[in-house]
## 1
Amino acid sequence: MRVYDVPVVFFDLDDSLINKDANSLWIRWRFRQDRWAMVEATLAMLSLYRAYKKGKVTHWRLSNYYRTRTDVVG
């Protein structure tokens, strides 16, 4: 059996692998690994908002970003 040294990403779109919000789990893991992760995330969101205010990002893209980063249970 061959093992390749490549990064792998799994997307659990239907919650069949884990029964929790993957985004929240990712944020918790990142925060435990690196305390600056929350600062980086905040700076990224502020940068996106500033780009929107300057007209470099569309309202649809900004809304889509926030919608995909929010866990909606329904």
## 2
Amino acid sequence: MKVHLSVCKVTDIDFESLLQKGKSVFLFDFDNTISFWKSSEIPKDIVQLFELLKSRGAMIFIVSNGRSRKLNYEIPAIWRAMKPLTWKVKLKLRNFLREKDKVVVVGDQLFTDVLFGNLLGAYTIKVEPLDLKREFLSTKILRFFERLVFGRVRKNSEKEH
């Protein structure tokens, strides 16, 4: 599994650099990536980030396995996306995913978000989850395996640099 970049939180990502490298389609996980689990609130700093990306011509989408909800910010979203499977997202966003080298996937889980990004052929960014206490039981179990795998992934990516 390939993690291109690992950061603490979404606002730690150097989006300016990504834009300069030709990245223009950003797929963000929602729960525990940009906001807390089951929340409908996109924090102000993330809204500002989205506005900056949009002002630079980027396309931004929420791609979440969570339930549909009304957000405090207007943004196209694919709920119940069934990540890491890609067919639903490919079906809905096919016009935006044609040039894989322009696509960035940002999420907090290896086995859903990063694997999904790898299957799309996108640039993947792993962020630390916002809150580990409030998650599905299945997510908590996957986190255990993530810690095992991510240590290995991190070591391999360090060898490449």
## 3
Amino acid sequence: MNAKNRKTFTAIFQEPVRSDLNWKEIENLFKALGAEVTEGSGSRLRVALNGVRAVFHRPHPQKVTDKGALKSVRRFLITAGVK
């Protein structure tokens, strides 16, 4: 995991929950952690990490993740044993 991925990881777990993270940075973090990332239909993204699976929706038309999606990413990472 490079410095940019560590910065993204730290931002995901910051309080209060941020609403300014670029979704592409979160996808890159998933890949850096060794997750299997596959495209779903539409804007869906399937992610599997340490036996835990989740489906996320890419934000559109903006590229910034909202607070609800970021909380879901946070729960996914905790469930997958990444903290």
## 4
Amino acid sequence: MTFLPLSQTLLRDKQEDLDIQDLQGLLRLDWKLGKFNLWSGFYTRIDQVFILWGLICAGIFITAQFLPVSWYIQAILWSVLTLIGSVSMIILTWFWVSVEKLR
């Protein structure tokens, strides 16, 4: 028994045939500069939650490591941002959780 199945690639494109719970709240990005395609992709609500938490964690880390902000102010700011992130996560995933009968 292997930990990672070697027959499947680790990174691959997302499937284009999405279920109804994935289509609800789908975010499509198609950024172009003239004829040059900068970024193109689509993100389900679950993807959006992971991106949101990644940005929150990056902000917390960068502030704590590189900016001269007091620990007291950081604790208040990041507590508020974590609360906002938690509420956003609940809003973004509520439909998916309902369809999958995970509530």
